[in-house]
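A quick word before the example. In earlier lectures we treated sequence and structure as two separate objects. From today on, think of them as two lines of the same record. Here is histidine kinase written that way.
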Amino acid sequence: MKSSLPGQADDGARADRRLLMAGQGYRSATAHEAATQEHGPLARLLKSCAAGTALAALARPALAQAEQQAAATAHLFTSSQVVGVSVVIGVISAALLSTLWLVRQRGNLENESREIRSALSDAQQRISQYQALIADKNRRIVIWDGNARPELLGQLPPETGAPQDGEFLAFGLWLKSRSASELEKAIDRLRDEAQSFDMVVETIRDEILEAQGRVSGGRAFVRFVALNNLRAELAELRIERDRLMTSISAFQTMLDAIDMPAWQRDPVGRLTWVNQAYGEAVEARSPQQAINEGREMLTTVARERIRATTTPESPFHDKISTVVHGNRTFFDVVDVRVPGGSAGIAIDVSDIEAVRAELERTLKSHAETLDHLATPVAIFDGDRRLQFYNQAFVALWELDIAFLEGRPDNSELLERLRAAKKLPDQLNWKSWKEAALSVYRALDTQSDLWHLPNGQTLRVFATAHPQGGATWVFENLTEQVDLETRYNTLVKVQGETIDHLSEGVAVFGPDGRIRLSNPAFRALWGITETEAKPGTHIRALGEACAPSYDRPDGWKTFAELITSFDDERRSGQGTLELFSGLVLDYAVIPLPNAQTMLTFVNMTDSVRAERALTEKNEALRKADELKNDFVQHVSYELRSPLTNIIGFTDLLRTPGVGPLTERQAEYIDHISTSSSVLLTLVNDILDLATVDAGIMRLNYADIDLNDLLDDVSMQIADRLHESGVALEITAPAYLGSIVADPQRLKQILLKLLSNAANFSPEGTSISLECHREGTDFVFAVSDRGPGISPDMIATVFDRFATGAKSGKRGGAGLGLSIVDSFVSLHHGDVTIDSEPGKGTTVVCRIPSVDVPHSAAAE
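And the structure line, produced from the sequence above:
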């Protein structure tokens, strides 16, 4: 008994340790659960279940062993019983706590399960929404996952021309070459370097698409979006901007390569761009330095001159000298003004100017010789004798050279001129001559006007020499006086002209005060002559005109243009519609001497007529569209029932339906014939409507003409048999081939042959003659019918023009109209030759195109 007690005690101790380890396991599981709660409800649920299971497994063996030990040692000491009871109570308490904890965890698990199901439902709903968005017909997405085959989602509109199958990734087949190249490079960078992109591409059909490349979740995808009208227009503007920027870059590169300084300025005159030659001319390290530092190649005076004289309509073009690299250099400068500023270029003409300057010096040295002066000059010495004269003096007075070489006295010369009646008539000749010769005693230069008998006017300058003698200079003012007279006359004529103009004219000075106005100006604005008298300020004039028009784009704008202090005087033009209904075209025109002219033209009648014509044209256009829509709609709507009627008619003829009486068979034949005629008429109307709408397309193909004639003769056989007419075809053994639309060419021949058979008497024949003229196919259809009168030939190709009274059966009159339309689509011509009683011949010429292609009807 005693020897077994230590073993039992050891077993109890081991049970206590297992129970303690079970509690520690429970706490460890609880701590692990707390540490992993951030991984989601499902993870927490799995963790808690595992911990509870482990705790229960540990608790059960410990409890059983404790009960066995308690039974074995019940007869032992009282202290051992107390310990056993305590252990049992502890185990039962741990089991109850575990049960409570498991019940609580089960409730938490159910709550988390409901949350997971709700989150899963939301995720599935989002996936459905995303799939619906991706499947939009205006969007397509390409997804690359590693080296696997790319996945295509969605589709693009058919009008973009984008393939809907695997050929979609062959961008060169449906995108323009430039867009395809840029897109392929961008996709390579996206897949290799994860470099996103946003770009706009153009399809071969000139449609605009937006391409966006992104990388997400280790996958590369590109989204293609068909743009709406506004975004497409913005994309087109962006593409056009890129093209313009490319052109500008090319021009700037070219200007950088030439050795002529070029520049560009903003509206205030600051440099915004210069080329390499400009930077070298101003000794800058780079063109950008010249721009940043504002280095000017031209002088301030030259720049101000350019700014003052250059207008958008009249560029500046003149030679300007400046200093380049320390040397005086002459440039031929061209400066143009544009809305965004100005641009100019300078051509070095220093060598030319050097030659010109040398020439000018040479001419000047010769001109210093008085003999080459255009102004008559005569020099007298101290004895008042003629010492020198030039050729202009001789030409003016027409004096004898021998007389002049005799060195006559000044008084003698005047007497000779008076005797020749070349001097002005004077009442007191002696006094006049003494006054003229008083120059020899005068201190200052004397001047006088001589009005010669021959109509010339001379300004005579006489200057005494300090050493004695005098110089006489005769300035011919005849042209100046004549110009002044004509100028005064012109001013009066212009004043009268302005007063009688139907356009309103007003001229303002630089101070904004009116200088002149004509009656038409005052009548248009409904003001009096007093309100527009000279000296009236433009503000007062605007107030007087306010009852007619007081909006900001009226006299307020005129005042800003006329009285502004801008270095560059601006012009302007526009249209005003007055409150009275008058429509005026105005123009603000800068004049010399800082004056400004304001003109008004009454455009009321023209505007009203234009509006009426515009409205009428719009009405006609809508009517034409309505007509085309109606014809197409009715034609298409008629085709379906006609097709059904023809089909059921043919079905009734089959033996499987049952036998028909003779009268029923006759009725069926009439229904079939009428339906076929009506279907042909509907097809003809639809063809003409398609031609009128401009959407008819010819499907060109290489046609063997012999096969074509055989096919036409077979198809027209029933029609000829019905009319009792024979067909004679005259053609060479081998006509060759032609590139044309087979269906339309066959339709032309059948229409002409049917028309000829309709108008040919029974028992006669119609002929079809064919031959080649170069690459053209020429054929003529002739009949022996009643012919066409000359007054009807001009209308045979008109629609619904019919000659049913002379034919075997009537028609809608569309056959020849269709022939003319189809021949015109082939760029051919058709002529008709007919005489009453002798039949009719229609000749068509169809040219062959070089390469088969599809052409739209124009």
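Notice the following. The chain has a mean pLDDT of 78. We will return to this example when we discuss secondary structure assignment.
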